[in-house]
Specification:
The chain is an alpha+beta fold. The protein has helices spanning 2-22, 26-63, 65-88, 93-108, 112-132, 144-153, 166-171, 175-189, 208-219, 272-288, and strands spanning 136-140, 157-163, 193-200, 223-228, 245-247, 251-257, 263-269, 290-291.
């Protein structure tokens, strides 16, 4: 190693002499000499490194193929870890860090059932994230957590249709409904426009209970209208007349029901070709609905809705 340094210094000294002959500016002589000496030294070290790597690759297949494979796997893991870290930097650092820390602590502490429970929660989250990569996610039954989370994430608008069967009426007197309306109230406070269109099948449903429900929600800042699905104008009779919620005109939340009005599944879709028709459909239905506060007045008579 020492002889390489001597060669580099000698080359640098020779360069300084040449520089002195070629120029009278002394401050450039030393600089050029040091630069050239450094370049020669670096090139020598790089050459040695290349030779060592070549020798190492030549020896490994003959004496220790397993060691070579281990080295290759190690570099692959380093590459994967680097990619993973780069992707994690794009996510909220507090949430990702808290998830990783909490999951690790639960796995190392507490009873086995809590560890298995935590692992199942993480697995479900991973499954949902994998599904969301394609712009959609589904789950069995009604998922109130998704509904509240989307409401909390909305920044522009929430357009929702709500049927008013006997089952649906009971919902508005439940705890989940209270939390949902509170989340909408908070969304309205931060500038989100919330519109709810009540869908009824029977003109008899246009009663004081519905008017009072509309008044309660308007007091929170929700715009409310109602229409009778069986009396839609011919111009808007064709098309979807079921429940759906569009958040920020970009994501649709829907609940699938069976013939007994039991909620069987929840789906969230962000595909533009799926969401756009629902945006248009809501606009059509909203235009033919009447404000809930007009129920019982001449302009809110059953015959006037969808006439």
């Amino acid at each position: 190693m020492w002889w390489k340094v001597l060669i580099s210094l000698a080359a640098g000294g020779l360069t300084s002499v040449i520089a002195e002959v070629a120029s009278s500016e002394t401050k450039w002589q030393i600089g050029v000499g040091i630069f050239v000496a450094g370049c020669i030294l670096v090139l020598q070290l790089l050459g040695d490194l290349i030779n060592q790597v070549r020798d190492f690759k030549a020896v490994l297949p003959e004496h220790n193929a397993q060691t070579q494979e281990t080295v290759v796997r190690s570099f692959a893991r380093i590459s994967e870890a680097t990619k993973f870290y780069s992707e994690m930097e794009q996510l909220p650092s507090d949430g990702v860090a808290a998830l990783a820390t909490s999951a690790a602590e639960v796995s190392s502490k507490g009873p086995d059932i809590m560890r298995r429970f935590a692992e199942e929660l993480v697995r479900r989250l991973a499954v949902d994230m994998e599904a969301l990569k394609s712009g959609s996610v589904d789950c069995v039954g009604e998922n109130h957590d998704w509904l509240l989370t989307l409401t909390n994430c909305a920044t522009d608008s929430i357009d929702t249709t709500s049927t008013l069967s006997l089952v649906d009426r009971d919902f508005w007197n439940s705890g989940p409904a209270d939390r949902y309306l509170q989340a909408q109230r908070e969304a309205i406070a931060r500038g989100v426009t919330v519109r709810r269109l009540f869908l009824v099948d029977d003109p008899a449903d246009l009663n004081d209970d519905l008017r009072q429900l509309g008044e309660e929600q308007r007091a929170l800042g929700v715009e409310t209208r109602v229409l009778i699905r069986t009396r839609l104008p011919r111009s808007v009779r064709r098309g979807l007349v079921d429940e759906f919620i569009v958040f920020d005109k970009a994501t649709c939340y829907e609940i699938e029901q069976d013939q007994l009005h039991v909620n069987t599944s929840t789906r969230v879709r962000a595909h533009e070709d799926y969401v756009r028709p629902r945006i248009q459909r809501f606009a059509e239905l909203w235009d033919v609905g009447v404000p809930t506060q007009t129920i019982g007045t001449p302009t809110g008579e059953p015959g006037a809705v969808g006439a």
